[in-house]
Specification:
CATH class of the largest domain: Mainly Alpha
Low-confidence stretches: none
Strand content: 5-15%
CATH superfamily of the largest domain: Winged helix-like DNA-binding domain superfamily/Winged helix DNA-binding domain
Shape: elongated
Radius of gyration: 25 Å
Mean pLDDT: 88
Strand order of the largest sheet: 1-3-2
Number of strands: 3
CATH topology of the largest domain: Arc Repressor Mutant, subunit A
Length: 124
């Protein structure tokens, strides 16, 4: 079970690792599009666009349906939740670490200010 979740997450990050596929997903957030419509902004062939769509399908991020000769794609956002949760763990981790660092730097600034004030009193 855990291994299949890991494979699914790998596929999502692989799909998101390509700028063209991320832009395709952005366009699909506005609604269903044909593969041709997804390909248009990139000046790529339908075959190349179809390969990108297949990577998105393997990740479960896109569902494709065929209407006549047109392949229509729609966004399936559910797999993004797993990626978001995975990233959220590290966001909390780093926020905690950065909060500790900020506290230490503020403490150091306070110590430096006290030291400077004490030295200044003796110089007059």
């Amino acid at each position: 079970m855990v291994e299949s979740e890991a494979r699914r997450l790998d596929a999502v990050f692989h799909a998101l690792g390509d700028a063209t596929r991320r832009r395709m997903l952005q366009r699909l957030a506005d609604g269903e599009r044909s593969v041709g419509e997804l390909a248009a902004p990139f000046a790529m062939s339908l075959a190349a666009a179809s390969k990108h769509v297949q990577a998105l399908e393997r990740a479960g991020l896109v569902r494709r349906r065929i209407q006549g000769r047109t392949h229509l794609c729609r966004l399936e956002p559910r797999p993004l939740a797993g990626a978001h949760a995975w990233l959220g763990f590290y966001e909390r981790f780093w926020n905690g670490r950065l909060d500790i660092l900020e506290g230490l730097l503020r403490q150091d600034d306070t110590t430096d200010t006290r030291t400077t004030d004490t030295k200044g009193d003796g110089d007059e």
